[in-house]
């Protein structure tokens, strides 16, 4: 089953949005495979956002993501990578539609509450960067094809 890496960013943790954000993905019907509250080292942050190394906002991005605890998660379900991105909304909260996480809770492009993997390759890379294999739980809920 497809897996994605999602992370409530430091602004979301500081603003007590962890429960609300987890609830969106639970309500949608996806399955939680792993989660932890953690602080990110500068090295891990630079690796995680490596694709943005040359961007002018890279330093600010790394400083922000390491500024306080984040809530890292792995979610599972059919097409979860793309669907989670749709539930998150556009990168800039001022362009994100109401009803999306960033549309409802995000303030600025820098403080946009949540991260989500954008491809199967980045999902695999990010899951491996943040979680050990034994931290991810595989479990059955019900004998049904459509309950993940
Ligand atoms: P993320 O990686 O955090 O899930 O966000 P994303 O895919 O929607 O956006 P991406 O292009 O990967 O950018 C990563 C994060 O960098 C910050 N950003 N700042 N100042 C700026 O112009 C700017 N552009 C991007 C955002 O916090 C974005 O989430
Ligand atoms: Mg991204």
TrEMBL record:
Keywords associated with the record: ATP-binding, Cytoplasm, Kinase, Magnesium, Metal-binding, Nucleotide metabolism, Nucleotide-binding, Phosphoprotein, Transferase
Pfam families reported for this sequence: NDK
Modification type Phosphoserine: residues: 122
UniProt entry tagged with the keyword Phosphoprotein: yes
InterPro entries associated with the record: NDK-like_dom, NDK-like_dom_sf, Nucleoside_diP_kinase
Annotated compartments: Cytoplasm
Residues that bear Phosphothreonine: 91
Enzyme Commission number(s) of this protein: 2.7.4.6
Catalytic reaction equation(s): a ribonucleoside 5'-diphosphate + ATP = a ribonucleoside 5'-triphosphate + ADP; dZDP + ATP = dZTP + ADP; a 2'-deoxyribonucleoside 5'-diphosphate + ATP = a 2'-deoxyribonucleoside 5'-triphosphate + ADP
Known function: (Microbial infection) Catalyzes the phosphorylation of dZDP to dZTP, when the bacterium is infected by a phage that produces the substrate for the synthesis of dZTP (2- amino-2'-deoxyadenosine 5'-triphosphate), which is then used by the phage as a DNA polymerase substrate.
Family assignment from sequence similarity: Belongs to the NDK family.
HAMAP family: NDP_kinase
Protein name: Nucleoside diphosphate kinase
Organism: Oceanobacillus halophilus
């Amino acid at each position: 089953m497809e897996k994605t890496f999602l992370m409530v960013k430091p602004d979301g943790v500081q603003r007590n949005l962890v429960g609300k954000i987890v609830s969106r993905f639970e309500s949608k019907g996806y399955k939680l495979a792993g989660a932890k509250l953690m602080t990110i080292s500068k090295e891990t942050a630079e690796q995680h956002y490596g694709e943005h190394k040359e961007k002018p906002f890279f330093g600010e991005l790394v400083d922000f993501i390491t500024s306080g605890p984040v809530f890292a998660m792995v979610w599972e379900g059919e097409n979860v990578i793309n669907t989670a991105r749709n539930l998150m909304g556009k990168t800039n909260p001022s362009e994100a539609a109401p009803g999306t996480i960033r549309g409802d809770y995000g303030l600025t492009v820098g403080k946009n509450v949540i991260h989500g993997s954008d491809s199967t390759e980045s999902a695999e890379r990010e899951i491996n960067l943040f979680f050990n294999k034994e931290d991810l739980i595989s479990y059955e809920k019900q004998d049904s094809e459509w309950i993940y």
